[in-house]
């Protein structure tokens, strides 16, 4: 009986030591944040607000922004929290009972908070600078997800159709060029 107790105690101690020793190895700079969903929501709200304020059509009838996103992670460095996410956004309004598409984009974001306030909102540069800016803005473990993003597609059509169900044909949006 003493052997079983001694052996059990030894196994428990070894497990505790292994867990203690391995934790620094497996821990990377991406830390778990208790209010992760709240931070993603706040970041999304920030982008929506910024986009709405910049839109020439925000005062049009039933102007609405639809979004979806992929959360890539949250990194804490000192007093800063960096939120990494891919945001897909589409905005619409109604003109003469027709659905008009205002804007549409799908792009990765790095949004930085300090003291619960956005202090910086960054997106990659376009063209030849795209890959370099991805490498500058995003941690290595996120870069591959972003560079291989084309395999993911967003579909906001159901949300759009539900919101504009009162229109004669809410599934047909027109794009107006100015």
Account of the protein in words:
By secondary structure, this protein is α+β, with helices and mostly antiparallel strands. It has 5 helices and 5 strands; from the N terminus they run H-H-E-E-E-E-H-H-H-E. The N and C termini lie far apart (86 Å). The relative contact order is 0.14. Residues 22-34 have low confidence and may be disordered.
Stretches with pLDDT under 50, minimum 5 residues:
22-34
What's the mean pLDDT score? 82
- Note the run of SSEs as H and E: HHEEEEHHHE
Largest sheet: 5 strands, mixed
Radius of gyration: 23 Å
Overall SS class: alpha+beta
- Globally, the shape reads elongated
DSSP helix fraction: 25-40%
Distance between the termini: 86 Å
User: What is the number of strand segments?
Assistant: 5
Q: Percent of residues in beta strands?
A: 25-35%
Structural domains: how many: 1
Number of helices: 5
In brief:
This protein has 178 residues and is an alpha+beta fold. It has helices at 2-26, 36-54, 130-137, 140-147, 157-163, and strands at 61-77, 80-95, 98-114, 117-122, 173-175. It has one domain (30-175).
Features:
about 180 residues, alpha+beta, 5 strands, about 35% strand
Secondary structure layout plus pairing:
Blueprint lengths: L1 H25 L9 H19 L6 E17 L2 E16 L2 E17 L2 E6 L7 H8 L2 H8 L9 H7 L9 E3 L3
Parallel strand pairs: 3-5
Antiparallel strand pairs: 1-2, 2-3, 3-4
